[in-house]
Design a protein that fits this description.
The complex is a heterotrimer.
Chain A lengths: L1 E4 L2 E4 L6 H8 L25 E6 L12 E2 L9 E4 L4 H16 L15 H9 L16 E3 L3 E3 L9 H8 L6 E4 L6 E4 L12 H5 L5 E3 L12 E6 L8 E7 L2 E6 L14 H6 L7 E5 L16 H14 L10
Parallel strand pairs in A: 1-5
Antiparallel strand pairs in A: 1-2, 3-4, 3-5, 6-7, 7-10, 8-9, 11-12, 11-14, 12-13
Helix pairs in contact in A: 2-3, 3-7
Chain B lengths: L17 H6 L4 H9 L2 H11 L11 H6 L10 E6 L8 H8 L1 H15 L3 E6 L4 H16 L15 E6 L9 H8 L23 E5 H13 L1 H6 L1 E2 L2 E2 L1 E8 L5 E6 L4 H6 L13 E5 L7 E3 H5 L11 H5 L2 H4 L7 E6 L4 H15 L5 H19 L5 H13 L7 H26 L10 H5 L2
Parallel strand pairs in B: 1-2, 1-4, 2-3, 7-11
Antiparallel strand pairs in B: 5-6, 7-8, 9-10, 9-11
Helix pairs in contact in B: 2-6, 2-9, 3-6, 5-6, 6-9, 15-16, 15-18, 16-17, 16-18, 17-18
Chain C lengths: L6 H6 L10 H11 L11 H11 L6 H11 L3 H10 L11 E6 L2 H5 L2 H12 L12 E6 L11 E3 L2 E3 L4 H14 L15
Helix pairs in contact in C: 3-4, 4-5
The chains are: A alpha+beta, B alpha/beta, C alpha+beta.
Chain lengths: 327, 445, 193
């Protein structure tokens, strides 16, 4: 099936979504995605950041689609023509989506462990506007523990449903879910039940924001001061292939390896994630390839200045004044 | 006097019972369909009738039926949408409460056409007592052999039952309704697939409104072509209108489509004019989500033609000068009404009813309500009108389901036609709720 | 306003031991389950929650929801997610009579705000509160489909329509005299049409 996205044509198999096709072409046309996760069935469609304009439905039926569509949940038709970054309408609409995602977000990046690897920061920086027009009190929830290893900051949650789908599809018994409705919706567990499954830690990796964080890493270090390496160990529960975040010789945290789209390559077990925090537990394969754009590539102390500039850009994008005006 | 096909017997004592209903010609469409017609012939009559979905969207019913996938060995379902929750709409409640068998009869005839062995009537939880009335009617129908195995010896068997909801407007959206019917949160599904292919339990399903299903009975009885003679153009047949607000005679009226709006509001046969000798200010013609129109545009189109109660005439001029027939929830406002405050009640409603799945609706509806509250508090700036406009434009068309539009349209229309009211409050920094003073005494004086 | 209390802690407060449907209720539950195809018993969740609410004191405690999950053979979180989504399920204890005053457009146009204020004054409570004697809980509701007979309030299965202050007085007095818990599932519907 032929599909044209932002003027670039590509042949894709039947059943491919617009977003997948765009990713095949490359990051220059791939829409941002906050809730879609290729490894999780029925994910996507909620955040609406990946919306695109279909200017021609197919060769057989060239009628344009009347409304923007979620590219992650819309399958390609033969001869479909799609506009993403080439459509001013989509760019404006996406700016609106970013604003909606941020109206009830606390913008507490300075104290958030996810800062530096937060998809919402990236999204805000790349697609948002510099100011917020929201002048009302934001939603507030108490921070709670979901078991002894995972912290839930509901304030930061954008309700992407990824963690719910992970629990449903990767673990063998979901005990948390989305409660209440509308803007009172919240992720929570059922009656104080800890998420205590062997694979529960994966909810941390799929969370695009700082809502679900690793308690064993909490406040230990800014991610950009740590050095990620690819490593493996013998594990009977999972493949044992992980990403180990080091500072000097110390293992600060362990996560799954992520691909170019920031998606977990292989889900890892809690043993690997939480219980193996010595360098000797791991066979280190080599440094992780990190994009030059990423703040994490600044993992050397002598790049502090560059790092500050980057961090300030993020802050500015999120609509609050940088703490330090001088770079 | 217009023809009535649905609630013509509503005042007959005991019409809620099968005996009286049958004595007045009830269940004849089932007899006719099962004994003399094939399922496809029933569908054809519905197609010929030009019947359009009465729940609000106005999609041709026969066409919807023809989309139903019919794979071998897979169950098909008919689901009746009785989750009537659109503010200003109460016609389905009236129909079900007064003539419950009209719905059951329609369910059987329609299920026969669709080849559905089982059907569900999903009724909003708040209408619990109506659900009881329907359950009672179903029990009567089973006892008399209208439901169950081998109905009228035709070989067609059918089971029908009622499901009550739990209180959620969003379950009126057909895929949210199906989720709810499956015992889940009322989150609309992402389409495609459409219910016609994968609906209830993943099986092909048709979801129709109460009034739509009830209308199938007269269509089969009189023939699709005869039915299509009523009305104008593509607006065929009769429609139940729920009339409320500042009128002398609020209630449910069955009208022939094509009735002039002016006649509907002012004639004694229908609304009986504006209460307390006040002047008409504005009308929301088809339930809270459709654009509000000021007097001059609801009575006449922008071209100066009389506005008629049809899908086309009410839609004339698009959203710039027109509106929609929608669900037929006809809310009339007198000259004292604050459009801003009325809009606030609508926006509060949509905020309350947003399921929270997708971000524009989840965050945008609450934001709009908060901005509108500023107007009521007298703290709004003139720029807040532009902000409201911008927020609604960023919700519209960006959401999973039509609740986004339903929340955005009333805001857009209120600003489009009554911007001066917003600006006046912003300038004065004060909101005088003249529409609210001692209204109860006025009503019951 | 403080931070919202998380669901988990909220529900923890509600302890109730050894609950079980009455035989009558259980029969109804089984009848409802039989309305759905084999293996689709989760479909019965909404109606069964209504029955549970009526059976166990007008609200759904954590234990009640656990019990419903067990009856329907589904996960407790599935019940919790659903019960918290819909407005008719009370997740906290309520008074015997929950008065739900509709406040959307047509009701507002016909004086719903005055009715609400009147009830607040009469009962000495605000919206969301319960009277000290545990008799009444006052709530607002969004459109209940009674626009032509506005203003209105719902209490249990009953719609009270075309409200006036006098009618409100009578309703409150009647309920108080009766002193019974009102549920949506009650059959003694008294239409005031």
């Amino acid at each position: 099936m032929k599909v044209t996205i932002d003027g670039i044509e590509i042949d894709v198999p039947k059943g491919t979504t617009i977003l997948q096709a765009a990713r095949m072409i490359g990051p220059q046309v791939a829409p941002p995605a906050m809730c879609y996760y290729s490894k999780l069935k029925t994910s996507g469609g909620y955040c609406r950041t990946c919306i695109v304009k279909v200017t021609q439905g197919s060769t057989a039926n060239p009628t344009p689609m009347p409304k923007p569509v979620a590219s992650c949940r819309t399958e390609v038709m033969d001869g479909m023509v799609v506009q993403n970054y080439t459509s001013p309408e989509i760019i404006e609409a996406r700016k609106g989506i970013v604003e909606f995602l941020l109206v009830n977000h606390p913008l507490d990046c300075p104290v958030c462990d996810q800062a530096g690897e937060c998809k919402l920061q990236d999204l805000g920086y790349e697609n948002g506007s510099a100011n917020t027009r929201y002048e009302f009190k934001r939603r507030e929830y108490e921070v709670i523990d979901i078991g002894d290893k995972i912290k839930l900051h509901m304030n930061r949650c954008i309700l992407c449903y990824r963690c719910v789908k992970t629990a449903e599809q990767i673990t063998n018994g979901r005990v948390h879910g989305v409660l209440h409705r509308g803007d009172a919706s919240e992720i929570s567990t059922y009656i104080e039940q800890a998420i205590s499954n062997d694979f529960s830690g994966n909810v941390i990796d799929v969370c695009p924001v700082g809502a679900l964080t690793d308690k064993t890493f909490r406040f230990k270090q800014r991610v950009w001061f740590t050095k990620p390496v690819e490593a493996h160990r013998h594990c009977t529960k999972c493949s044992g292939k992980a990403r180990v975040w080091l500072k000097g010789e110390e293992v600060l945290r362990v996560t799954a390896r992520k691909d170019q789209w920031d998606e977990v390559e292989e889900f890892i077990c809690n043993d690997c994630r939480f219980e193996n925090k010595r360098t000797s537990d791991w066979v280190i394969e080599g440094p992780t390839q990190v994009s030059r754009q990423s703040v994490i590539s600044q993992n050397h102390y002598n790049h502090l200045n560059e790092l500050k500039v980057e961090a300030m850009k993020h802050q500015k994008a999120l609509g609050f004044m940088p703490l330090d005006k001088k770079p | 006097m217009g023809r009535k096909l649905l609630i013509h017997n509503d005042k007959v004592p005991g019409i809620n019972t099968l005996e009286v209903y049958r004595a007045h010609g009830g269940y004849s469409s089932v007899e006719k369909a099962l004994k003399t017609m094939t399922p496809d012939q029933v569908t054809d009559e519905v197609k010929k009738s030009g019947l359009r979905g009465r729940g609000g969207a106005g999609f041709p019913t026969g066409l919807k039926w023809s989309f139903l996938a019919k794979p071998e060995g897979v169950a098909r379902y008919l689901v009746c949408n009785a989750d009537e929750s659109e503010p200003g709409t109460f016609k389905d409640r009236y129909l079900m409460e007064k003539i419950p068998h009209a719905l059951i009869e329609g369910m059987i005839t329609s299920s026969y056409a669709l080849g559905a062995k089982r059907s569900y009537i999903y009724i909003r939880g708040e209408y619990f007592y109506v659900a009881r009335i329907i359950e009672q009617a179903i029990a009567e129908a089973y006892a008399a052999g209208w439901l169950g195995e081998n109905i009228l010896g035709s070989g067609f068997s059918h089971d029908c039952c009622v499901q009550v909801g739990g209180g959620a407007y969003i379950c009126g959206e057909e895929t949210a309704l199906l989720e709810s019917l499956e015992g889940k949160r009322g989150n609309p599904r992402i389409k495609p697939p459409f219910p016609a292919v994968a609906g209830l339990y993943g099986c092909p399903t048709v979801v129709n409104n109460v009034e739509t299903i009830a209308a199938v009975c007269p269509i089969i009885n009189m023939g699709g072509e005869e039915y299509a003679k009523i009305g104008i153009g593509k607006s065929t047949g009769t429609k139940l209108i729920s009339a409320s607000g500042h009128i002398n005679k609020p209630g449910v009226y069955e009208i022939e489509l094509g009735l002039p709006v002016e006649e509907f509001i002012f004639s004694e046969e229908y609304c009986g004019g504006i209460r307390n000798g006040k002047k008409l200010k504005a009308v929301v013609a088809g339930g809270s989500s459709v654009p509000i129109l000021p007097t001059e545009l609801i009575l006449k189109t922008a071209k100066g033609e009389p506005r008629l109660m049809t899908y086309e005439s009410l839609g004339d001029g698009g959203f710039i000068t027109g509106t929609m027939l929608g669900s037929g929830g006809f809310i009339v406002m007198d000259e004292d009404t604050s459009i801003v405050k009325n809009l606030f009640t609508f926006t509060r409603f949509y905020h309350h009813e947003s399921c929270g799945q997708c971000s524009p609706c989840r965050e945008g509806t609450g934001w709009m309500e908060k901005v509108l509250k500023k107007f009521l508090d007298g703290t709004a700036e003139e720029s807040d009108v532009d902000l409201l406009w911008d927020i609604q434009s960023k919700i519209e068309g960006k959401t999973i389901c039509p609740l986004g539009e339903a929340a955005a349209w009333p805001v857009a229309a209120a600003i489009r036609h009554f911007k001066h009211e917003f600006l006046e409050i912003a300038k004065k920094k004060k909101f005088d709720d003249v529409s609210h003073y001692n209204r109860l005494n006025k009503i019951h004086a | 306003m403080g931070a919202q209390v998380h669901g988990t802690q909220e529900f923890n407060k509600s302890k109730r031991a050894g609950i079980k449907f009455s035989d009558d209720a259980m029969q109804t539950v089984q009848k409802i389950i039989s309305n759905y195809p084999e293996g689709k018993q989760k479909s019965a969740l909404l109606p069964v929650l209504h029955i549970a609410q009526a059976e166990f004191g007008g609200w759904l405690s954590a234990e009640t929801m656990d019990y419903v999950a067990a009856v329907l053979n589904i996960k407790p979180i599935e019940v919790f997610e659903v019960a918290s989504f819909y407005t008719m399920y009370n997740l906290k204890p309520v008074g015997k009579c929950v008065l739900e005053v509709c406040q959307t457009s047509s009701c507002w146009l016909n004086g719903a705000e005055d009715i609400l204020k009147y009830i607040e004054k009469k009962l000495g409570i605000k919206v969301g509160e319960t009277t000290k004697d545990g008799m009444f809980t006052l709530k607002t509701a969004e459109c209940l489909g009674s626009c032509g007979t506005a203003p209105m309030l719902q209490c249990g299965a009953s719609y009270h329509e075309n409200l006036t202050y006098e009618k409100v007085d009578k309703i409150l007095n009647d309920y108080k005299a009766e002193g019974k818990q009102k549920n949506y599932t009650d059959l003694d519907y008294k239409n005031t049409l």
